[in-house]
């Protein structure tokens, strides 16, 4: 079978709105397709979603494959995976990128299994390097144990598939008037695929400000356990009008919700100010705030890796550092 050279991006949509991560991947995808010499395509799946194709084209897609069927109105693992896998088998793209969202993380392994290729989950970077005359996608993930970056390659099977966390790449500037091709695809979907049906999707009630939108984020690590609770963390965030986030152990303890966890398996954010309180700085965590403009870290261990990621570090016990810090900030705010 003839292999294509194209780079594909899954353009996730919910309720007729494109997820930002698809546009972010078009930016990286355009770089990758430039290096491997193919074209950049987006794959859009849903019902009545064709009008979204122009947004994908203005963000860099040369081609948009639109898989449209009323039965695909809501995300459906079996049906989406079958329809996309058929398209992949037909065109054999070189690279296929999906966002590491709840949907992308569910969909990507199903497609990879169907087309018989590998998949690297939760990438924090992607780059093309030539190996034995073949342009190979290096898919970077934080290494097990968290202290290393590891590159994963998929030398034999195609496409080279990866999921990437939202926020890792930036959305490219939209170019109005860009020409692109829209290819309508009629999926072959047997009723057997629809044994489970999505009846309704309801949005969660709006809570606090999402951490990816906050200009100031105060992130709590396991060291906050010494405070006996999150009160001081919330107080600091309130003084700075920021949002509260945290590390994996705090999620496991139930002191933050999953949408507030930072890192490789959590969110990737780039606030103006990021404050880390009692987090050691494992790479699984620190890859989540690499884009922060300014990082302040507090930890009692002067050797903690978090200080390598910080612009300013305070070595000290949170129980001693936080109360005067909050007090001084309050005074500053009041003046
Ligand atoms: C595949 C994989 C994915 C992962 N993904 C994520 C992820 O997305 N996000 C994430 O956060 N983790 C993730 N992890 C876990 C990660 O490797 C670390 O274990 C975790 O980030 C550590 O959290 P922590 O810094 O809060 O805790 P610790 O590493 O235990 O650090 C606690 C820190 O608190 C300090 N401390 C203790 N008491 C005080 C005090 N009184 N005052 C000041 N400092 C104090 C200590 O000196 C220490 O530095 C992942 C792991 C794996 C294997």
Task: Walk me through the structure.
With about 325 residues, this protein is an alpha/beta fold. Helices cover about 25% and strands about 25% of the residues. It has two domains: about 5-195, HUPs (Rossmann fold, 3-Layer(aba) Sandwich), CATH 3.40.50.620; about 210-335, Rossmann fold. The N and C termini lie far apart (about 70 Å). It binds flavin-adenine dinucleotide.
Order of helices and strands: EEEHEHEHEHEEEEEEEHEHEHEEH
Number of strands: 17
- How is the quaternary structure best described? single chain
Provide the structure class.
alpha/beta
At the first level of CATH, the class of the largest domain is Alpha Beta
Count of domains: 2
CATH structural architecture of the largest domain: 3-Layer(aba) Sandwich
Structure at a glance:
The protein has eight helices and 17 strands. The chain is of the alpha/beta class.
How do the strands and helices of this protein lay out in sequence?
Layout (H helix, E strand, L loop, with lengths): L6 E4 L2 E2 L2 E2 L1 H17 L3 E7 L6 H6 L4 E6 L8 H15 L3 E5 L2 H14 L3 E5 L1 E7 L2 E9 L6 E4 L7 E5 L16 E5 L30 E5 L10 H9 L3 E4 L1 H6 L19 E5 L5 H4 L7 E6 L12 E4 L2 H17 L1
Parallel strand pairs: 1-4, 1-6, 4-5, 5-12, 6-11, 7-11, 13-14, 13-15, 15-16, 16-17
Antiparallel strand pairs: 2-3, 8-9, 9-10
Helix pairs in contact: 3-4, 5-8
The site of flavin-adenine dinucleotide (FAD) has 28 residues, from helix 6, helix 7 and helix 8.
